[in-house]
Amino acid sequence: MDISIIVPLYNEAESLPVLHDWIVRVMQEHGFTYEIMFVNDGSTDQSWQIIKQLREKNDHVRGINFRRNYGKSAALYCGFEAVHGDVVITMDADLQDSPDEIPELYRMIQEDDLDLVSGWKQKRYDNTLTKNIPSKLFNATARWVTGIQLHDMNCGLKAYRQEVVKNIEVFSEMHRYIPYLAKNAGFTKIGEKVVQHRKREFGVSKFGLNRFVNGYLDLMTLWFLNKFGKQPMHFFGLVGSVMFILGFIAIIVVGAMKLYALAHGVSAMLVGDNPYFHLSILMMILGCMLFLAGFLGELIIRNSSERNNYLIREEV
Question: Of 228, 243, 269, which residue constitutes the final position of a domain?
Answer without folding.
Answer: 228
